[in-house]
Specification:
By secondary structure, this protein is mainly alpha-helical. It has 4 helices and no strands.
């Protein structure tokens, strides 16, 4: 199977969607260990171990960054950004988000911040590439 550059952009959006929920698997595991209270699942937050609290924050941040990344990747798709740079940025975002969650859960702040920066730079680059193709 051969993917075009625009196909890779779409797969990266799907990958980023899946990555939103990976940190939540850690949260779910911790909730089960504590005795999941289905009537008040969010009330358990203060009882979660620190790694599960960080996993919750990684999960929430994944939603926040996904909104911006998906807009940038869709703009790149619509404007026909098939360059190596555009595709590399989309892939870099997905990889950075994997490591972002891992570093957040393991409490490695410098690694987490570096991955956040890489993801943000990748997203910003997609915006710039898309806008430059329609403005000139």
């Amino acid at each position: 199977m051969h993917l075009s550059g625009s196909g890779i952009l779409l797969y990266c959006i799907v990958g980023a969607t899946v990555l939103i929920y990976l940190p939540f698997l850690v949260v779910g595991y911790s909730r089960l260990k504590l005795g999941y209270d289905q009537s008040a699942p969010r009330a358990m937050f203060d009882q979660l171990p620190p790694y599960a609290q960080r996993a919750t924050w990684a999960h929430q941040n994944s939603f926040e960054t996904f909104i911006i990344f998906s807009a940038a990747a869709l703009m790149a798709y619509v404007t026909g950004q098939n360059s190596t740079l555009a595709i590399g940025c989309a892939i870099a975002f997905v990889i950075a988000r994997v490591f972002y969650s891992v570093f957040y859960i393991l409490n490695i702040p410098l690694g987490r911040s570096l991955m956040f920066a890489i993801g943000s730079l990748s997203t910003g680059t997609l915006f710039v590439l898309s806008l430059s193709s329609v403005s000139g």
